[in-house]
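Chapter review: from sequence to fold.
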Amino acid sequence: MKKSHLFTLFPLILFTITALVYAFDYLFGGISDLALFIFRWIGLTGLFIYGIGKKNLTVWIFIALAVGAFIGYDFPTVGENMKVLSKIFLKLIKTIIAPLIFATLVHGIAGHSDLKQVGRMGWKSIVYFEIITTVALFLGLVAINLTKAGEGVKYVKVNDVIEKKTAQTWEDHILDIFPENIAKSVAEAQVLQIVIFSFIFGIALIMISEKKRTLLVDFTDSLADTMFKFTNIVMYVAPFGVLGAMADTVSGMGLDVLIPLLKLLLTLYAALIVFILIVFIPIAFFIGMPMKRFFYELKDVAYLSFSTASSEAALPKAMTAMERLGVPRKIVSFVLPTGYTFNLDGTTLYLSLASVFVAQAAGIHLSLYQQLIMVLVLIVTSKGVAGVPRASLVILSGTAASFGLPEWPILMILGIDQLMDMARTTVNVLGNCLASAVIAKWEGEFDPKGALENYTKGENLE
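The token string follows.
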């Protein structure tokens, strides 16, 4: 038997045995707690064997989720003491926030949005991006308020935070937007202040000569790439963070914590599907997009972005697909990269949804006014991260800190973040593809019929 088959077949046998035992106990009962305990860990052993065969970070995150849940359930004292692992991971995540936002936002403005060079395409793209992402944010807000996925999760340790938190006036909210000391803003993880500083810095770069600007633009591009790699390195610690967070959470709350996570996952997928149906498809019809060809050309793009959870991985295929659909290369090459910073529809919808989930899980009631303020903050902060798997975790962590929300619900979310990231990344990519066609139509250069004549592959699709 091949080694690869061993790592697949043997875990399957263990899973099957465990499932049959639990099915028998559910239907007929009579199996002792000790026997169920043994078979639980037999099934977990199968997970380990499968993970060793796959050697994949995503697989190990799911394994860590299961291990943490089992440890917290079967050994609650041990599980409670494993929270240090989640704290280590959170500390590493927090180090990413300031440099990543600064680098991506400054380069996005100074490197791509020089209005002297891009003219009408610049402001048209920005206007479109802001409208669509704002719709996504509000849709996420509506979805989580309808399902209330986070309600019912109780964690008494956040009570101290709630008691110490004081109400802020609207003047305080406005003042909190603007930094007085950028080092202080970085030290306190004040995301919005970092964004404002980065935005003004990017505008200032545009106003100086190209000779002086080039060095800093190249620096921010290099810093952004470095922080992307830094994020990838930190994500290798994610399984330990997930294990510690889940063990600690389940030890105090039981396995019932998994129910809100499932509700959150279903809420996100449902909201993204609704967003596609009520926003993307009507826009596509409005600009005269040939829908059959649109789905045909983008099916591989969607699959790649879903399977890798990375917008960057799908960029080359996305650019080629939109050219085949009649969008000129000069528009595609501008709108898609710029959209990767300013037009993350799936991510912005997720951020508003997840932020309220964090509050619901912590038992903190956010008024409509507070939720609207949060959306206004996210309209800006969501522009700070682009194209990196699970990078929205960074923005979510910063947003929670800005509103005095606890961190432990975010670590709960991390356990299923890969599944959510796959969906939101796919919507991000599809949204930017559609945006390039919208700008081309606005510029009077969208020609799907002409493009069809140049590509014989699409002739049978009309």
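Two observations follow directly from the output. Residues 156-168, 457-462 have pLDDT under 50 and may be disordered. The chain has 23 helices and no strands.
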